[in-house]
Amino acid sequence: MGDPRFPANYAVLLAGPPGVGKFEYMIAQARDALRAGERVVLVTLDLHPNEVRARAKALQLDLEAYEGRTFAFVDCYSATASDRPEPQPGKRTFVVSSFSNLEGIGMAMSKAAQELGTPVRIYFYTISTLFLHNSTQAIAKFFQIVTSRAKMNMGFILYAVHDGVHDTMTMNLLRSLVDGVIEMRFTDSMDHEVRVHHMRGFQVDTRWRPFVQMPDASGGL
Amino acid sequence: MADPTGGGRIRTGIKVLDDRLGGGFSRPSTLLLFSDKPTEKRLFAENFAVEGAKAKETTLYVDFYRVPSLARAELARFGPFAQDRLVFVDAISVQLMIESREKYRVAKINDLQDIFDTIIRAIRTETPSRIVIDSMEFLADRFPKAALLEEWRNLISEAQAIGSVTCFLFINWTYQERDLELLRAMSDFVVEFQSSMRGGIVRNSMRISQMGEGGVRTNWIPYTFRDLIGVTVYFPRIMVTGPFNAGKSTVVKALCEKSISVDRMGTTVAFDYGSVNITGIEAEIFGTPGQERFEFIFQIFAREVSGVLLVVDATRPEDFERAQKMLALIGPHIPYVVLANKSDLKGALRPDAIARKMELPEDTPVFATVATESQGVREALLTLAEMIIGVK
């Protein structure tokens, strides 16, 4: 796809309408990082970890092979579902009890990073879900604190956010609190496109490029 | 009100803290467990709740974030306690639209009145000696401030009427400083929490301040969590230092069940290390070499040190100048105690004489120790721990 590897100690927002392929983009990033021997934390608010595992596998990333060693979930999803999973041996999952418990989410991320070791790459899917359960003001402060903690003490963080569901002020606020923004969109023919909007400290090519969802056999996107 | 723990005080279960608080929090008390960034303050609240249930006190836990079945499972890591002593007010099932089997459950999560009516009904019925509200920011983020403060105050007076110690967890996402002033003024104690990450490790600390004039105030107390034990005070770095051949390695060995020494022909060239766990205090002990040529190691360890045990040979006043110099290297704000070691030997100076010769500040504790016999060293460490925790 020609994207640069993101630097460490850096925060990126990945914005795009629902269904455009943000999850696939994140999984591709996580896959490259894990294959390069880096540590990865995935914070999931929208999907059950089992669903993440299954969807990642379809994208040729076997998360279970890395879990407990260089990969961990922060699971904010399953505690709110009625069927709560039993802890599985060898897989370290940090469960957060509720979407409203912003403090718990923040600490679970720190503890996951502590468990795996730093530096770590954190993928947060999605920040939009928080808005269903908390005020914009509370999320803004949470977002700012977590971003600065991640950059200072943990490493790299990428947040996915749904475009078109938040007001302009909220989106601008989120964009202002990160170092870089990646945008995704649908074309008129319902193809998917991605571009780097900006990256603090880097010269970037901001042209839209096609985003191909299914990986080829070699694993490249 | 009968109180099985005695003295009308409510213990935190963290011994060294309870000692400093004169046996625990007096009844009734209102505690604000506060932070402005994410911390692990919930551990303190959970420890406090379980400690109550362990002591067969009725404890009320109001949970906005966790279904009680999950909370009960999570609290099991604090060790066994009387389950029926821990009563939940379930304020989460309604949010998840799942059935609740709890005796007390909030029915309308968008109705401030209903939430507080449910809590107060539980307080009046159960007359708990401990109450935990987890957490107030949930309400602060959803209801108008004036209405919430009025209910909050009302809850405090209900809890005080039955002699409870009440913990309000609160992380400030949305309030202004002047609102925080109000919250502090409504509380008897403010327990502030910090979590920071250094070198990839999360470090927690807390500070207790009693509101009002002449109130007790501690320093920042580092703490950690241990399965089945709960919250313990934890000093990640206690330094044992002193002039050459004063007995530093022996002090480390006497304090720690297990210790390692990096030495050459009996003298420490890198450092001694051991960990110690006594009466609710855990500490990692680092012994430095005494010789001047190893000062660079000393300076590495002097960073982020919680407190210092300065070991001097009570029979060698000629080394005291070196000891003074080491104190100067540590800096002025680190608490320390002096161990007058080898005090069983002929010609050993008494602690007061050593204090005079070293020109120590008046209230500096000096312990006569015999490290080879483990005499006096634990007492010195406990005193140091109390100084680090501090009560002003």
What does this protein look like?
The complex is a heterodimer of chains A (221) and B (392). Chain A has 221 residues and is an alpha/beta fold. Chain A is built from five helices and nine strands; from the N terminus they run βαβαββαβαβαβββ. Chain A has a nine-stranded mixed sheet with strand order 4-3-2-5-6-1-7-8-9, with helices on both faces. In chain A, strand 2 (39-44), helix 2 (49-58) and strand 3 form a beta-alpha-beta unit. Chain B has 392 residues and is α/β, with parallel strands linked by helices. Chain B has a 16-stranded mixed sheet that branches. Chain B is elongated and about 75 Å long. Mean pLDDT of chain B is 91; it is low at 1-6. The A-B interface holds A 79-80, 82, 84, 97-98, 100-107, 110-111, 113-114, 117-118, 134-135, 137-138, 141-142, 145-146, 149, 152-154 and B 35, 37-40, 42, 64-67, 70, 92, 95-96, 98, 135, 137-138, 141-142, 171, 173-174, 195-198, 200-202.
SSE blueprint and pairings:
The complex is a heterodimer of chains A (221) and B (392).
Chain A: E1 10-16, H1 22-35, E2 39-44, H2 49-58, E3 71-75, E4 93-95, H3 102-116, E5 120-125, H4 136-154, E6 155-162, H5 168-176, E7 180-186, E8 192-199, E9 209-210
Parallel strand pairs in A: 1-6, 1-7, 2-3, 2-5, 3-4, 5-6
Antiparallel strand pairs in A: 7-8, 8-9
Helix pairs in contact in A: 3-4
Chain B: E1 9-10, H1 15-20, E2 25-26, E3 29-35, H2 41-54, E4 59-63, H3 68-75, E5 86-90, H4 93-96, E6 104-105, H5 112-126, E7 130-134, H6 136-140, H7 145-161, E8 165-171, H8 177-185, E9 189-198, E10 201-210, E11 221-226, E12 230-241, H9 248-255, E13 258-264, E14 267-278, E15 281-287, H10 295-301, E16 307-313, H11 320-330, E17 336-341, H12 351-357, E18 366-368, H13 377-389
Parallel strand pairs in B: 3-8, 3-9, 4-5, 4-7, 5-6, 7-8, 12-15, 12-16, 16-17, 17-18
Antiparallel strand pairs in B: 1-2, 9-10, 10-11, 11-12, 13-14, 14-15
